[in-house]
Amino acid sequence: MLKGTKELHTERLLLRRYHPEDAETMHIKFGIDPQMYAYSGWNPYATMEMARESVQRFIESYINTDFYGWAIVYQNNLIGTAGAYDYDAEKNQIEVGFSIAKEYWGKGFATEALVCVLQYLTEQEGIKTITAWCAKENDASKKVLLKSGMKQTGINIDGLQVDGKVYDQLFFSYSAE
After folding, report:
1. How many CB atoms lie within 10 A of CB 61?
2. Mind listing the domains of the chain with CATH numbers?
3. Which of 70, 116, 125, 115 is nearest to 94 (CA)?
4. Model-level pTM greater than 0.90?
5. 142-174-124 Cα angle (round to 5)
6. What is the pLDDT of residues 72-84, one digit of tens each?
7. What percentage of the chain exceeds 70 in pLDDT?
8. DSSP code of 110?
9. What is the largest CA-CA distance in the chain?
10. Were 2 and a residue from 13, 65, 98, 139 both cysteine, which residue would form a disulfide, CB within 3.0 to 4.6 Å?
């Protein structure tokens, strides 16, 4: 039986549920700078209203045991997000995603958080397979996925379109086996 989003800890990070007051930080750190969503096209924090609605939707989703959404906190500062989406019970599989605020790039936070999430989902939740994807050009995300123990499993040539740009889409997988 899945338990959903639980508070997680790493050596440096706290991965916790979202709070309503996180919306402003999410807008400032993730919604304004186009680099933060350049390869995903997904920007639920573009305006303060969108940020508030997104955070509220996450909070309301915690009632679902197959919803996983974490605010990543370092030294009492919200520095990132991690989540797992689209749980497929038949395949016992889920997709993960993450984002770290620009001023914290290159410090290992994304890898540290993702390793923690992968361990929780497989060891505590019993989910067999975790998947992820990134644009081929997104070297930082590719590095995080590989360093966290995920393996590249495929490529979809020109499979990703974001703001009129076309990218090759890389697919990754992590298995509990």
Report:
1. 17
2. 8-127 (3.40.630.30)
3. 125
4. yes
5. 125
6. 999 999 999 999 9
7. 99
8. H
9. 42
10. 65
Give the span between the Cα atoms of 3 and 12, in whole angstroms.
24
Contact 140, 148 (CB under 8 A): no
CA–CA distances in Å: residue 94 to residues 29, 31, 122, 149: 26, 25, 10, 16
For residues 162, 165, 166, 168, the Cα torsion angle rounded to the nearest 10 degrees is: -70
Q: Residue 113 is encoded by which pair of tokens?
A: 């958080």
- Amino acid present at 132: A
Give the tens place of pLDDT for each residue, 95-127.
999 999 999 999 999 999 999 999 999 999 999
127 DSSP assignment: -
Chain segment 130-139, per-residue pLDDT in tens: 999 999 999 9
User: pLDDT at position 177, please?
Assistant: 67
Rg for the chain (alpha carbons), in Å?
15
Q: Which residue has the tokens 């090759």?
A: 168
The residue type found at 20 is P
